[in-house]
Design a protein that fits this description.
Blueprint (H helix, E strand, L loop, with lengths): L1 H7 L1 H33 L2 H4 L7 E7 L1 E17 L2 E4 L5 E6 L6 E2 L4 E5 L2 H36 L5 H33 L2 E3 L4 E3 L9 E2 L15 E4 L4 E8 L3 H10 L3 E5 L6 E10 L9 E8 L11 E18 L4 E3 L2 E7 L5 E5 L1 E6 L2 E6 L6 E5 L10 E3 L21
Parallel strand pairs: 1-22
Antiparallel strand pairs: 1-21, 2-11, 2-15, 3-10, 4-6, 4-9, 5-8, 6-7, 8-10, 11-14, 12-13, 12-15, 13-14, 15-20, 16-17, 17-18, 17-21, 19-20
Helix pairs in contact: 4-5
Length: 413
């Protein structure tokens, strides 16, 4: 009876050892959870706020003090300083063309030769008449020299001497007429050579060899050209442009002080083509458009200006001495007007309102709001707010600061 009782006591021993094991497991789980929770809390947003914010890279420059030209800008078109349509004074066929289309020609250079045979014959005839009448004059002078001694000796009547003197005077007048006829014939013969009236560039010729060119006072058929070619003088060259009528006093004051500089730029305003001088202001403003026409002359040494081109013209009315200038990229537009970001000694930026007087070639003349030597941001403003701490990137490496696009600013493209 003792054996069964021993066997029945073993399960009771196992049930008494189980509770301590469960308590240990629970304690371990609680400790692990607490540690993980502490780790998460220690590295969460609250801890991140304690770290200093990252520096924002920008490209900056200093406010410069320099002479700044004050300009007026107008739109105009280029015209030849002189334009000539080469016509003929006579009606004759063309026997040769001595220039090429688009060729640069010199004053007096032969352009075309007309048939000279008729006018050469007229010249030969006039010269022959002169030679004949000179012979008559010489013979009459010989006779007069013979009559005068005879008249003094009483062997020749006075009337004969007077008649001979009248004949000589008549021959002298005839010779003058012959000389005038020769000059006229030479002039007519010179018309058979069509020459350039000034240095310039020839256009596309309007007539070819074998065509009859008519004189400027006559014409063949209405469809037939009445000129050989058009010559444009392009060195120097002129530009006609317009400015607002309100700018007239400023331009007049500049002209009163001396020569006024004019600058011709390409139609997009990016390329400077030539520098010249203002030549004239029209004597009346256009009441419809409120503008005034002006004329400027340019040397055009490199022939970058061509008749018919549209250009922008800048007129320098005066120069602002020791003006404060910053790059155009530094000026921003805000709800309250124009401003720049100024970098302080602690590398924190502040918004500084400015007043812009003029802009030229990517530079801005500041009327007020800045002082010389201040540091202003020229690239990277889209990431800035007042008080932002910045780092100054290498100005020669634009890639150091991202482009201010909507995508890089975190906005929708």
């Amino acid at each position: 009876m003792a054996v069964p009782s021993v066997a029945s006591d073993k399960p009771a021993v196992k049930s008494r050892r189980r509770p301590p094991l469960l308590v240990g497991l629970v304690t371990l789980a609680v400790a692990s959870g607490g540690y993980l929770g502490w780790q998460r809390f220690a590295h969460g947003p609250a801890a991140a706020k304690l770290e200093p914010p990252p520096l924002v890279p920008v490209i900056a420059t200093t406010v410069q003090k320099q002479n700044f030209p004050i300009v007026l800008t107008g739109i105009g078109n280029i015209t030849a300083l002189n334009l000539a349509m080469v016509r003929s004074m006579i009606t004759e066929p063309i026997v040769s063309i001595d220039f090429k289309d688009g060729q640069f020609v010199k004053n007096g250079e032969l352009l075309a030769q007309l048939d000279p045979s008729t006018y050469q014959a007229q010249l030969d005839q006039a010269e022959a008449n002169l030679a004949r009448d000179q012979a008559h004059l010489e013979n009459g002078q010989i006779n007069l020299n013979r009559y005068i001694p005879l008249q003094k000796q009483g062997f020749a009547p006075v009337q004969q001497v007077a008649t001979q003197q009248a004949k000589i005077a008549q021959e002298q007048a005839t010779i003058k007429a012959d000389q005038a006829a020769i000059e006229y014939a030479k002039t007519q013969l010179s018309y058979t050579k069509l020459v350039a009236p000034f240095d310039g560039v020839a256009g596309i010729r309007l007539l070819d060899v074998g065509n009859i060119i008519h004189s400027s006072t006559t014409r063949g058929s209405p469809s037939e050209p009445n000129a050989l070619v058009v010559i444009n003088q392009v060195q120097p060259i002129s530009v006609m442009f317009t400015l607002a009528a309100a700018d007239i006093p400023g331009v007049q004051d500049a002209l009163a002080k001396g020569s006024v500089k004019a600058i011709a730029l390409s139609a997009d305003g990016k390329t400077e083509l030539d520098t010249g001088t203002l030549a004239a202001i029209d004597n009346q403003a256009n009441t419809t458009s409120g503008t005034i026409s002006l004329k400027a002359i340019f040397p055009n040494l490199h022939r970058q200006l061509w008749p018919g081109m549209f250009v922008n013209v800048r007129v320098v009315t005066h120069v602002q001495d020791n003006g404060l200038t910053v790059p155009l990229d530094a000026v921003q537009q805000g709800p309250q007007g124009q401003f720049v970001f100024v970098v302080g000694p602690d590398h924190k930026v502040a918004m500084q309102p400015v007043s812009v007087r003029d802009t030229l070639n990517g530079e801005v003349l500041i009327d007020k709001g800045l002082t010389a030597g201040e540091t202003v941001v020229v690239r990277g403003q889209y990431r800035l707010t007042p008080g932002t701490v910045v780092s100054l990137a290498n100005p020669n490496d634009p890639a150091a600061v991202p482009n201010p696009t909507t995508a890089s600013a975190g906005l929708l493209p």
